[in-house]
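wait is this the right file?? whatever heres the structure
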């Protein structure tokens, strides 16, 4: 399963779990990241039907809500029915669990996720067989993960589901940290990074915040959200400008660049070095490259190379002062 599909399925699950009302197909098309709202209706219908069937095959209880005339109003996921019972897993289902374990790797749910995986393995397959969840997940790269610094996802999901206002401290890139009062509408994944989209009470407008830049604890208040989202608003999600996803080609020395390799979508092994292709936010790429210097041999595109050089110059200037 490629990263784009993994992100889209996760975004769909989060949207259907967080909603207080059934989401119509048009709501899903316009507001769930991963579905192109500009694509044809036929293309969306085919993709959504495949995703819905695949999630249901995993045991995720997507409920179709109809009116008295059997007209479909929309879809949702009942959390009361979202439980793992009577597991008899195939190798394919174990592979999907491997993806799930990778997503929650190193996050606040990391230990619980690994414990659950180990228990499932003990009932499903021998832990040292090629089909074990651990063996499969260790072979996967380039997936969206929820890391410890993105643990804000849990209270934000709760607040979105209950339509509550949250408070947190946010540190934009190259700016001072600020306290925010925020009404989360949804959680989305883009380029392997997690964001919350909603209404910023301090700015009186829609805003998108990157979870890894939220500092400290997200406080879910008792205050009820007052700005209900609409598909027309949510469909045009504006991500932070520095998080623009770019395609990078980076040459690194053999056996070096662990962080870059972990986030690469493709690796070409050459005689004297390896070439990595990575799609990620420019700010992340700069950070990963700096952790691997001087084993990085070349960087493309030129704009990314310039950004790395500028960051190094600024760092040296800061140290010199």
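ok assuming it is, sequence goes like this
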């Amino acid at each position: 399963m490629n990263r784009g599909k993994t992100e889209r399925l996760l975004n769909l699950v989060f949207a259907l779990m967080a909603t207080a009302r059934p989401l119509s197909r048009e709501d899903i098309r316009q507001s769930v990241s991963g579905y192109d709202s500009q694509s044809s209706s036929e293309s969306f219908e085919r993709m959504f039907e495949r995703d819905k069937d695949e999630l249901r095959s995993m045991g995720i209880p997507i409920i179709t809500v109809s009116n008295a005339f059997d007209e479909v109003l929309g879809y949702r996921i009942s959390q009361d029915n979202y439980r793992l019972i009577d597991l008899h897993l195939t190798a394919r289902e174990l592979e999907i669990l491997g993806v799930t374990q990778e997503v929650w790797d190193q996050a606040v749910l990391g230990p619980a996720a690994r414990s659950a995986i180990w228990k499932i393995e003990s009932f499903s397959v021998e832990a040292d067989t090629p089909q074990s969840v651990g063996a499969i997940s260790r072979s996967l790269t380039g997936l969206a993960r929820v890391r410890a610094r993105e643990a804000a996802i849990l209270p934000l999901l709760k607040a979105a589901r209950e339509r509550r206002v949250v408070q947190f401290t946010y540190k934009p890139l190259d700016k001072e940290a600020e306290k925010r009062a925020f009404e989360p509408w949804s959680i989305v994944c883009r380029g392997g990074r997690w964001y919350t989209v909603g209404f910023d009470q301090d700015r009186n407008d829609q805003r998108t915040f990157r979870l890894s830049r939220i500092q400290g604890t997200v406080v879910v208040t008792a205050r009820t959200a007052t700005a209900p989202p609409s598909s027309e608003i949510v469909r045009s999600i504006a991500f932070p400008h520095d998080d623009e996803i770019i395609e990078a080609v980076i040459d690194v020395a053999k056996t070096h660049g662990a962080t870059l390799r972990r986030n690469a979508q493709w690796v070409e092994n050459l005689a004297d070095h390896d070439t990595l292709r990575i799609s990620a936010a420019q700010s992340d790429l700069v950070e990963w490259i700096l952790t691997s210097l001087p084993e990085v041999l070349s960087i493309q595109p030129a704009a990314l190379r310039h950004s790395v050089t500028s960051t190094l110059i600024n760092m040296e200037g800061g140290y010199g002062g």
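The longest strand covers residues 178-190. so i think its the right one actually
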